[in-house]
Structure formats: C-alpha cells, structure tokens
Amino acid sequence: RGENDPDSLAKAKAFQKKKYEAGFAGINWPIEWHGRGGTAVQEAIYSIEEQKFAVSPAVFDFGLHICVPTICEFGTTAQRDRYAIPALKGEEIWCQLFSEPAAGSDLAGLRTRAQRDGD
C-alpha cells in the first residue's frame, strides 16, 4: 500500500495530528508561525527518529516545507493563523501546480509577464 491509499492517508493524518499535539510539528518553525522555535538540528534528529514508525509524513512535505512557510513569511497574521495551524495538524494537505502554457512539470519552461494596471 502506498501513500495514495486511503488507509495510509488516514494514518498519516492521525499521526500528524498527534505530532502537532505533542509539539513535534514545525519543530524549527518560529513560535509566531505556531511552530516550536527549535533548530534545524532538532528537526533533523526528530525526522530520523520518525522514520522508525510505519507512517509516512511525506504527503505533508511540500505544504510544510514550501507552501505554508511562504504564507507565514509574506502573508498577514490572519493568513498565517488560518493556514499554518490546519497544515501543521494534518487537516489540510498542500500542493503546488503550474498550469501556465509551456510550464507543466518543466519549471525551466515557466514564463510570467507583468502588466501595469494603475498604480
């Protein structure tokens, strides 16, 4: 059974919730991001220990390592509160998709443009 299996997903969500409740979700996230305020070394040690369990937290990796930290860094306090807590608890799963022409999974082909619109 893989990570896309409904039973595996349910186990991962339950594990992530327990992790959050025990203070082990967002170990190296700042406290104002609802993290623990720990170090990268503490996060690495926990990750090594977590691998001993039969639950994969990989489904949360992209959201907790890229998407939600970006919101926490550049968003408002209200946005941080709205998105960080459910993500850390495993209630929401995040991904990032590029749907622009010529993008797909080839990020080297991603193009953007700006258009002045008033001030």
Q: What is the fold's blueprint, element by element?
A:
Blueprint: H1 6-21, H2 40-50, H3 61-74, H4 77-89
Derived structural class = mainly alpha
Number of helices: 4
Helix content: 40-55%
**What is the chain-wise order of helices and strands?**
HHHH
Biggest beta-sheet profile = none
Anisotropy-based shape: globular
pLDDT < 50 stretches:
none
Oligomer: single chain
Spatial extent as radius of gyration: 17 Å
Output mean pLDDT.
87
Number of strands: 0
Report the span from N to C terminus. 53 Å
Strand content bin: under 5%
Written account of the structure:
With 119 residues, this protein is mainly α. 45% of the residues lie in helices and 0% in strands. The longest helix is centred in the first third of the chain and has 16 residues, at 6-21. The mean pLDDT is 87.
What's this model, at a glance?
The protein is mostly helical and 119 residues long. It contains four helices and no strands.
Key traits:
about 0% strand, mainly alpha, globular, about 120 residues
